[in-house]
Structures are given as structure tokens and as C-alpha cells.
Specification:
With 201 residues, this protein is mostly helical. It contains seven helices and two strands; from the N terminus they run αααββαααα. The chain has a two-stranded antiparallel sheet. α1 packs across α2. The protein is elongated.
Length: 201
């Protein structure tokens, strides 16, 4: 048996886990020209996965009688939290000489994921490009200024190991020393690095 509240729990947890995955995957600048469309695609993906988690929960409980000795809230929470892992399971596949195609629920999930992520990425990429150009083109901003901001971002990133910090500093120095890059291009590269570091912090 199942009830309204355990379906709501499965929906909410699966939706929240989906949102965390989107947030981990993409960086969204504060200035977005298509914010409404971005929210639409994120909400559609979150609610779609939440709805599918409910369908999966009801199927497991009614058709397979799984978790019968568990409380409703416990089994709903487990299915909601594990929904994305179950959605990615490849039960069977069709192979050709060139590639392998998943069959079953994973195929549906992959197609939906790719369709939504492609649209989210298009909006986010355009906004990141405009943000990078805006920072690099600010009046009075020099390569030296951006280099200092890069070094400060590296130093303040608590998630970087000592080895990773050294590699990041080396990368910045290579950009500075690259004779094939003009000053404007160096500013674009360094501005992009500064903004990408803000994403990880």
C-alpha cells in the first residue's frame, strides 16, 4: 500500500537530488538574459524526475511488493534518494560495430537528460561568455590585475590541494608568458579563469 504523503516524500527527495546535480554541473552568472527559460527547463527537469520517482515507487510497492516490512516514509525516502542511480541502470543494450545503445528506462532518461541539459547549457554558456568579456573589457583592468585576482582565487579555494594549487599557478603563469597571445586574449583567458574559480567556491 502507498499513500499521498509517501508519494510526496519520494517526489520531493528525487526532485531535490536532481536540483543538486544541476547545480553541481552548471555555473550560472548573476546576469542572465533568459532567466525565465532557464528556470523553466530546470523546474521541468526537477518535476519530471520527481514524477518518475513516484511512478517507480508505486510500481515497486504494488507490483513487486518490495520494502513491505518497511515504514512508508522510509521506503519512499530510499526510492526518492536512489532514483537517479536506478534511472541510470542499463538493463540491456543493442550493440553495433560503431557504438552501443541502451534499451529500457535508461534510454528515456538519457534522452530527456541530454535534451534539457543542452538547453540549459546554451543559456549558461552565453551568459558566461558575456560575463567573461565584460570583466576582461572593463576600463582600467590590466593583465596584472586579473593575474592577481587569479592568484587570490587559488589561495582562497579551500578545496584545492597543495599540488593542485601549484598546477593552477603554473597554468596562470603559462598564460602570462605565452608570446603568441596578445594582451586582449590574455585578459579573456584570465577573466574566464577568475569566473570559473567563483563557480567552485
Amino acid at each position: 500500500m502507498y499513500g499521498l504523503w509517501d508519494c510526496i516524500i519520494a517526489f520531493s527527495i528525487a526532485g531535490f537530488v536532481t536540483y543538486l546535480e544541476v547545480d553541481r554541473t552548471f555555473y550560472f552568472p548573476e546576469k542572465l538574459n533568459k532567466r525565465a527559460w532557464l528556470y523553466f527547463w530546470i523546474c521541468l527537469f526537477v518535476m519530471g524526475n520527481g514524477g518518475l520517482a513516484v511512478v517507480l515507487y508505486i510500481t515497486l510497492v504494488t507490483e513487486f511488493n518490495l520494502f513491505s516490512d518497511w515504514s512508508r516514509w522510509s521506503r519512499a525516502a530510499v526510492v526518492g534518494a536512489g532514483y537517479l542511480a536506478l534511472a541510470r541502470q542499463k538493463f540491456t543494450s543493442y550493440s553495433t560495430e560503431a557504438s552501443e545503445f541502451p534499451l529500457g528506462f535508461e534510454l528515456v532518461y538519457q534522452l530527456a537528460n541530454q535534451a534539457v541539459y543542452k538547453r540549459i547549457n546554451r543559456i549558461a554558456s552565453q551568459a558566461r561568455y558575456e560575463e567573461t568579456i565584460e570583466l576582461a573589457s572593463r576600463e582600467g583592468v590590466t593583465v596584472t590585475d586579473l593575474k592577481r585576482r587569479c592568484e587570490l582565487s587559488i589561495r582562497q579555494d579551500a578545496l584545492l590541494s597543495s599540488e593542485a594549487r601549484d598546477k593552477q599557478k603554473q597554468l596562470i603563469q603559462e598564460i602570462i608568458n605565452d608570446a603568441d597571445l596578445d594582451e586582449e586574449t590574455k585578459k579573456w583567458w584570465l577573466a574566464g579563469y577568475v569566473l570559473s574559480q567563483q563557480r567552485s567556491q
